[in-house]
């Protein structure tokens, strides 16, 4: 019985770690976008810039309208927003992800404690 419970808990740990990593990655991506949009505010329109496209890759471009951005709102739908409004949306998304990150880490700690309990019970013969 303890073996099955232990296997189930170990699987939970693996799932939680993958979820934590996905949330961590999403937070990092939002932080890069927040920084990029904040920097765009200070760029002179028509001047050449390097635009990050991910994985430390950039393309050369020119900002033609530094006050507006196009952003996804889900289901493949794109909307135009001011930079300030886009930053507010991104901040809300990041905060929700940070809350999820904390929740997932708390769940992970609980599961790890359960694993320790099961191992302790198994070693004392109280499985």
Question: How does this model look, in words?
Answer:
The structure is a single chain. The protein is an alpha+beta fold and 127 residues long. The protein has a single domain (2-124), classed as Helix Hairpins. Helices cover 64% and strands 20% of the residues. It is built from two helices and four strands; from the N terminus they run αββββα. The chain has helices at 2-40, 83-124, and strands at residues 48-54, 57-62, 68-74, 77-82. The chain has a two-stranded antiparallel ribbon. Strands 3-4 form a two-stranded antiparallel ribbon. A hairpin with a 2-residue loop joins strand 1 (48-54) and strand 2 (57-62). Helix 1 packs antiparallel against helix 2 (83-124). The longest helix is centred in the C-terminal third of the chain and has 42 residues, at 83-124. It is elongated and about 75 Å long.
Q: What topology does this entry show?
A:
Layout: H1 2-40, E1 48-54, E2 57-62, E3 68-74, E4 77-82, H2 83-124
Antiparallel strand pairs: 1-2, 3-4
Helix pairs in contact: 1-2
* Biggest sheet details: 2 strands, antiparallel
**What structural class do you assign from the helix and strand content?**
alpha+beta
pLDDT averaged over residues? 92
Instruction: Give the low-pLDDT segments.
Output: none
Q: What is the β-strand count?
A: 4
Q: Helicity, in percent?
A: 55-70%
Beta percentage is 15-25%
């Amino acid at each position: 019985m303890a073996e099955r419970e232990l296997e189930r808990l170990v699987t939970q740990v693996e799932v939680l770690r993958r979820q934590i990593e996905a949330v961590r990655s999403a937070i990092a991506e939002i932080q890069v976008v927040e920084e990029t949009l904040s920097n765009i505010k200070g760029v002179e329109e028509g001047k050449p810039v390097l635009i990050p496209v991910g994985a430390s890759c950039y393309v050369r471009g020119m900002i033609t309208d530094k006050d507006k951005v196009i952003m996804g709102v889900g289901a493949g739908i794109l909307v135009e927003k001011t930079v300030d409004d886009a930053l507010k949306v991104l901040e809300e998304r990041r905060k929700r992800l940070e809350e999820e990150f904390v929740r997932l880490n708390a769940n992970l700690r609980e599961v790890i404690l359960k694993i320790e309990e099961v191992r302790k019970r198994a070693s004392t013969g109280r499985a």
